[in-house]
Amino acid sequence: MQQEQLVEEIKVLMDLVERNTTSLADEVMEIDVSEYTDPALFDREKELIRNYPQFVGPSCIVPNPGDYFAFDDTGVPILIVRREDGGLNALVNICSHRGAPLNECDHGQAKKGRMFTCPYHGWAYDLDGKLIGVPFAKDGFTGIDRDSLGLRHLDVQEKHGMIFVMPNPNRSFDIDEVLGGIQERIQGFGFEDHYYLGAKKVFTDFSWKLNMDTFHEYYHFEFLHPETIAQMAYSNVAHYKQYGRNHSMGSPTLEINELKKVPEEQWQPREYSSYVNYIFPNTVIFIVNDHFQTWRVYPIAPDRSVVYHSMFLPHEPANDEERQEFEAYFQMINDVAVTEDYSLVDKVHRGLQSGIDRKVLIGRNEPGVQNMHRQLNQVLAT
């Protein structure tokens, strides 16, 4: 958001704080326990992840030619690489020889900035996926058609500093439809030029949707995070806006009313607000004062999921001491999620698995949770 939009958002948040309320949905939502436990529904959700455009990350995750980012959590091994002309390729990350992935790390730089070499038998591919090298080809692979043995391409699109990919090689997508206008909310926060500090991988033994539910409401801050998040932000106060299948929620800091003593033209809105932005179906972009984070959640089994928590800074740490400070903060945020959110949600999961026939209630003050479930149900129904 630009400064003018940020200022207007601050005014909305101030009003919500003054009235001690939050954005409200039209009515309470009821969902059946089976939405978290039904194996057949889970299989359809896995197919959705494979067949719906996936948020890869901000553009700065692969800033330079030859930089790559790889993941296989959709069921399709994917390799995203920045081409020499500045564009992107998305390739099915399966060597044409025996099927090994071409990268040995989740992100990094292609060899000499221009090719990938399979760690199994050394077959080599350029940044466009063309097969350019086969060791001992004269004796071992006489007559192979190299032109037909390149890496298969996936539809990848980059816009407004965000990268999306379609895991299914037989499908394409419209990035504007996928964004639904949410770029109006999140442009200007440095997606193109921030520094990628890294990612933490956390496995959770409960439904991926239970995992996602935790991000979409601030109702729980006072009760679940009394000594951490509740010391920084108001509980049950959020400004909700929907963008297609996505949504955004602004949150005020406890110090927001200090701005009432400051002339509006001197306001620094990012010091007094934060934003949770949901990208359907399985990503959250969390924007705070001086950095942003992404949380990508993937289903593994009906009762198991994996979370990738990534952090992006305005600049690369200047020295080891500064890097250690950022790393410590990153670890602290991750630890809060694991020790406070996930440990409690694990108990919620046990209750859902108990076989008790009941409904799960999602309040009017939880419009983000409602939207996620509503969008999933609508897309799966079609």
Commentary on this structure:
- The protein folds into 2 domains: 1-52 and 181-382, Naphthalene 1,2-dioxygenase Alpha Subunit, Chain A, domain 1 (Alpha-Beta Complex); 54-172, Rieske Iron-sulfur Protein (3-layer Sandwich).
- It has helices at 3-19, 34-37, 39-51, 137-140, 175-179, 183-186, 208-213, 221-224, 320-352, 367-381, and strands at 29-32, 54-58, 67-71, 78-82, 88-92, 107-109, 115-117, 124-126, 131-133, 153-154, 156-159, 162-165, 195-204, 239-243, 246-252, 273-279, 283-287, 292-301, 304-313, 359-362.
- The radius of gyration is 22 Å and the shape is globular.
- The chain has 10 helices and 20 strands.
- It has a 7-stranded antiparallel beta sheet.
- The protein is of the alpha+beta class.
Task: Sketch the topology as an H/E string, one letter per element.
Answer: HEHHEEEEEEEEHEEEHHEHHEEEEEEHEH
> Which assembly state applies to the chains in this document?
single chain
What's the N-to-C terminus distance?
Answer: 33 Å
Percent of residues in β-strands: 25-35%
Report the mean per-residue pLDDT as an integer. Answer: 96
* Unreliable segments of 5+ consecutive residues: none
Biggest sheet architecture: 7 strands, antiparallel
Number of helices in the DSSP assignment: 10
Based on Cα principal axes, name the global outline: globular
**What is Rg?**
22 Å
Number of strands: 20
Helix content: 25-40%
Quick recap of the structure?
With 382 residues, the protein is an alpha+beta fold.
